[in-house]
Amino acid sequence: MASITLDNLAHSYLPDPRSESDFALKELNHEWVDGEAYALLGASGCGKSTLLNIISGLLIPSQGRVLFDGKDVTTAPTADRNIAQVFQFPVVYDTMTVYENLAFPLKNRRMEPAEIQRRVQKIAAMIGMEAQLSHKARGLTADAKQKISLGRGMVREDVNALLFDEPLTVIDPHMKWELRTQLKKLHQDFGHTMIYVTHDQTEALTFADKVVVMHDGRVVQIGTPQELFERPAHTFVGYFIGSPGMNLFDAEIEGNTARVCDAIVPLDGFYTAAGKMQIGVRPEFVRLSTGDEGIPARIRRIEDVGRHKILRLDVAGREINALAAEGENISADSNRITFAPGRINVYADDWRISPQEGTA
């Protein structure tokens, strides 16, 4: 296990990058704690796999350093980093049995046969392949092969880090849930440093201690699922986390109020306007009302998804979302929205800002 330090790290696939836009991975400085589970979350092309491949040694960065427990491994080959990596598509030895595939990393380290058997049996049970240990990998389905890849990554107990690059893409939905649960248990049992790349927020939020949200080659926030939900540091985080994502309203900010669509919205604290100002409110904290207070809104449609209802609202020609409890009565006369106190985030040029000290 190892802490992982990313020092002044950036990468461009161009031979002579001249501006920030030329970098697939913008400059970043972070230290990831030994033994924690992290998820790299973002849309396709945001730099997740680039960062993972730099950490694993498959890619040497254009600038900066990678350190494992303070040791510079930036140019060290993958084999010298003592890591296990599982890729998006299965990498298995077709001519070997399932048992031989799982045992391969342990045999390479000349481990005792009894210990190899113990670990292989344990991992085979975790991935649900005990009955197939004697089968050749060649005839197995894609999701079965990917389970072997996962198992081979997990069979070692002495690695500095376990790296997963969208490993559940080819796994059926029911098995995805089981394997995520097993990965979480593995982390709890052995305390490996784990980094899990995904574009699926459910995978990220259920797997990780900390989620690293990436956008346009930049890390925009690292936090717990609760922090990402309650205090998105960037409007992209608010949009990407949650279903539906956070609502954004252009606003004129003055002190402890925001003017939205000619309506006054009270804020918790005083703010100074700087650049493009917006407020962000989760659908969970949007309330329907009647009368003259609040922002004018019209119900377009109501979608009943079982656990709750999603209200699609029209606010000044834009769709805004609200959530209502399954049994909640929705009045046809509702014509305004208000927000739960203390649940409004304020943004300047897409970045969350805090109220002036002593005013919150």
Approximately what portion of the residues adopt beta-strand conformation?
25-35%
Helix run count: 8
CATH class of the largest domain: Alpha Beta
At CATH level 2, the architecture of the largest domain is 3-Layer(aba) Sandwich
Cα(first) to Cα(last) distance is: 41 Å
Strand order of the largest sheet: 6-7-8-3-9-10
Q: What Rg, in angstroms, do the CA atoms define?
A: 24 Å
- Class from secondary-structure proportions: alpha+beta
Largest sheet: 6 strands, mixed
Poorly predicted ranges? none
CATH homologous superfamily placement of the largest domain: P-loop containing nucleotide triphosphate hydrolases
- Approximate helicity band: 10-25%
Pattern of helices and strands = EEEHEEEHHHEHEHEEHHEEEEEEEEEEEE
State the total count of DSSP E strands: 22
How many structural domains can be distinguished in the coordinates?
A: 2
Anisotropy-based shape: globular
